[in-house]
């Protein structure tokens, strides 16, 4: 059977069985029930962990590809490209626009093809944007529409998140979803930091007076191949990881899907949007600190923002496991609003190191908010289904499938922040000559999100005694 086994493949002739689990050709598993404690402890945890590790690696590379242009664009002028402010911000934001849109169909690919099978396909597709980037940045004569098209291909990396998270939510019991989803997402989010750390080094090390800009693409090809092979050999498809049109339509009709999507736009959207634009902000505000030389290599500190946000995400999920996602999300928005206000007021006075410290705290708050808000999604759907303890039980299979569909839709809407943040800041820069106006718009949005979180979820949780 090929690596791309259709979900319609024959589901007979089991080749092995352990307890209630049946293993079939094509690495399919029947009978998976993460809420069954005996099954979980007798082998389910080990299987879930193996799938989680390879999911993290593939998703990590997806984020690398998704964020490559955020760091490549600041080197384009040195390499001989002459793009104006608007074109530069379009190159930064186009991958997020495409990636966010792809998350809608990617959400349903796990149910259609199987988690392992779709991971193989989606990882292999990452070869297109990295090879395309390597070819087009080698010549300053490459026209802007071609560059924009290749940047759009990088959106393939952004789509991976939705299918990965949808897949992992089926592998873990409700009581451990916050940590599992947080670690999976954090491992992926780290790709943004690694891309911004590695690219300045590989394009300058040993390059003397020129930039080896195509290396920004070629360096990831071997790792993508490893991800494809590893997913094919080590991951599994779950026959219970199914979705149907009725469940998806029911999720879309649920008002809380749209409320949670709005909140996730504030947490994850802020993270991915600021991660994409942070290298450009440093270059514009503090050009003398835009790069540091280590021998013949160059290092940018912009990667620290994405790093802090990525590392904070699983702890946001862990705190949400303990205290409820609503309370942690509320705290994250309060911190983000306060930090944004301080940056607006103090930017002319604090210098680079103060600017960096405040933004690292902002990234950390958004990362914790990412984990907490995402943890709320299965809890809210379980709560709406009438589960006795929605925080610790996932409800019936119908509510689980609705939640899985909602995870993908909400992650897609949140990812549009990667497009909106650079576009808002680019508009602010073009019209006012600075970024203060754009930050003011974000502050207003955070204040609205604080009110929504407190009035809808924190209050409901206290009224019903449920940790939402």
Written account of the structure:
With 468 residues, the chain is mainly α. The chain has a single domain (16-464), classed as Up-down Bundle (Growth Hormone, Chain: A), CATH 1.20.1250.20. The chain is built from 17 helices and 6 strands. It has helices spanning 37-72, 85-106, 109-113, 115-125, 127-136, 144-153, 155-171, 177-202, 215-218, 221-234, 245-253, 255-285, 303-323, 325-384, 397-415, 417-432, 436-464; strands at 16-18, 21-24, 28-30, 237-238, 292-294, 297-299. The strands form 2 sheets. A 4-stranded mixed beta sheet has the order 1-2-3-4. A two-stranded antiparallel ribbon has the order 5-6. A hairpin with a 3-residue loop joins strand 2 (21-24) and strand 3. The chain is globular and about 60 Å long.
Report a brief summary of the structure.
With 468 residues, this protein is mainly α. It contains 17 helices and 6 strands.
Q: Uncertain regions: pLDDT < 50 for 5+ in a row? A: 1-18
Strand order of the largest sheet: 1-2-3-4
Question: Mind telling me the CATH superfamily name?
Answer: MFS general substrate transporter like domains
Alpha carbon gap, first and last residue: 43 Å
CATH architect. name: Up-down Bundle
Strand segment tally: 6
Count of the separate structural domains: 1
Overall morphology = globular
Could you report the average pLDDT, rounded to the nearest whole number? Answer: 84
Query: Which CATH top level class fits?
Result: Mainly Alpha
Strand content: under 5%
Give the CATH topology. Answer: Growth Hormone, Chain: A
For the sheet with most strands, the description reads:
4 strands, mixed
- Summed up, the helix count is 17
């Amino acid at each position: 059977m090929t690596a791309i086994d259709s979900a319609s493949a024959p589901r007979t002739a089991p080749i092995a069985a352990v307890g209630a689990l049946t293993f079939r050709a094509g690495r399919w598993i029947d009978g998976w029930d993460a809420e069954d404690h005996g099954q979980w402890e007798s082998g389910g945890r080990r299987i879930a962990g193996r799938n989680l590790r390879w999911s993290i690696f593939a998703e990590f590379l997806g984020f690398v590809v998704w964020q490559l242009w955020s760091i490549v664009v600041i080197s384009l002028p040195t390499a001989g490209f002459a793009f104006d402010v608007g074109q530069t911000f379009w190159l930064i934001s186009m991958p997020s626009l495409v990636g966010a849109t792809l998350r809608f169909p990617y959400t349903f690919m796990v149910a259609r093809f199987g988690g392992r099978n779709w991971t193989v396909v989606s990882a292999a597709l990452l070869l297109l944007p990295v090879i395309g980037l390597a070819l087009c940045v080698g010549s300053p004569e490459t026209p802007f529409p071609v560059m924009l098209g290749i940047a759009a291909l990088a959106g393939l990396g952004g789509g991976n998140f939705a299918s990965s998270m949808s897949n992992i939510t089926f592998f873990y019991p409700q009581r451990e979803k916050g940590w599992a989803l947080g670690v999976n997402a954090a491992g992926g989010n780290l790709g943004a930091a690694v891309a911004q750390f590695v690219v300045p080094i590989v394009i300058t090390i040993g390059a003397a007076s020129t930039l080896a800009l195509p290396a920004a693409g070629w360096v990831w090809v071997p790792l993508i191949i490893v991800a494809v092979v590893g997913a094919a050999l080590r991951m599994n498809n779950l026959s219970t990881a199914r979705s149907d049109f009725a469940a998806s339509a029911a999720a879309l009709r649920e008002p809380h899907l749209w409320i949670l999507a709005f909140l996730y736009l504030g947490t994850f959207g802020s993270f991915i949007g600021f991660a994409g634009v942070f290298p450009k902000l440093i270059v514009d505000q503090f050009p003398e600190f835009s790069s540091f030389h280590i021998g013949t290599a160059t290092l940018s500190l912009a990667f620290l923002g994405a790093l802090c946000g990525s590392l904070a995400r699983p702890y946001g999920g862990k705190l949400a496991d303990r205290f409820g996602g609503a309370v942690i999300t509320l705290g994250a928005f309060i911190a983000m609003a306060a930090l944004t206000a301080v940056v607006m007021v103090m930017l002319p006075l604090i210098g680079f190191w103060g600017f960096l410290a405040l933004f690292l705290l902002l990234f950390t708050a958004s990362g914790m908010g990412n984990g907490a808000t995402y943890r709320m999604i299965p809890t809210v759907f379980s709560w709406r289904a009438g589960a006795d303890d929605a925080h610790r039980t996932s409800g019936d299979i119908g509510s689980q499938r609705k939640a899985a569909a909602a995870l993908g839709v909400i992650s897609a809407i949140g990812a549009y922040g990667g497009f909106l943040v650079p576009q808002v800041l680019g508009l602010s820069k073009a019209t006012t000559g600075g970024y203060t106006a754009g930050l003011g718009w974000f502050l207003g949005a955070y204040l609205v999100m604080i009110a929504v979180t407190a009035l809808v979820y924190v209050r409901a949780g206290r009224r019903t005694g449920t940790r939402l």
